Amino acid sequence: MKRRILILVTLLLLFSGCGLKRTISMYETRQPYYGEITVVSLGQPIPSGYKMIGTGSYGEKGLTRTDDCTLEAIINQARTDAKEKGASLISIMKIKEPSILLSTCYQVTISFYISDNQ
Fold first, then answer.
1. pTM of whole model > 0.85?
2. β partners of residue 103
3. Domain parsing of the chain, residue ranges
4. Residue 104 dihedral angles phi and psi, to the nearest 5°
5. pLDDT by residue (tens digit) across 33-63?
6. What CA–CA distance (Å, rounded) separates 48 from 45?
7. In the prediction, which pLDDT does 82 show?
8. Whose CA is closest to 87, among 63, 117, 54, 56?
9. What is the Cα 59 distance to its own chain's centre?
10. pLDDT band of 16, cuts 50, 70, 90
11. Rg (CA), the chain
């Protein structure tokens, strides 16, 4: 009986941390944006006429499904977050590729921007 409880508690602890970890910090609050989100690739300059309103970090919480850890999946989540926060452009600031030893997910840092005339 004790063994079953130990196994159950262990499984609950393992799976309670599953999923994509997101940390978002906004400098300004805005109404949601309903247009298309522009993505600026790593190392590319931000077009003129944009102002940074926040940052986001995306990575692994633990035991995250591989489908949710791809760079494409993380960028799509960042697009969704940008729309909710009122941003019209996201810039990829940092990408850390998956590693067998540390994490099976991409670790991505993104900045959120709005247009000056938004």
1. no
2. 99
3. 18-115
4. -95, 0
5. 999 999 999 999 999 999 999 999 998 866 5
6. 9
7. 97
8. 54
9. 7
10. very low
11. 18
Q: What's CA 39's distance to the chain center, in Å?
A: 13
The β-bridge relationship of strands 50-60 and 20-26 is: antiparallel
Q: How is residue 80 written in tokens? A: 């969704």
User: How far is the C-alpha of 78 from the C-alpha of 108, rounded, in Å?
Assistant: 10
The DSSP symbol for 35 reads S
Identify residue 2 by its one-letter amino acid code: K
Q: How far is CA 36 from CA 17, 39, 87, in A?
A: 32, 10, 10
pLDDT of residue 1: 66
The CA distance from 74 to 71, in Å, is 5
pLDDT at 77 exceeding the cut of 80: yes
Average pLDDT, the chain: 84
**Residue tagged 């609050």 (tokens):** 29
The DSSP output letter for 95 is: E
Measured CA distances, 77 to 48, 56, 70 (Å): 25, 11, 11
E strand or H helix that includes residue 79: helix 71-85
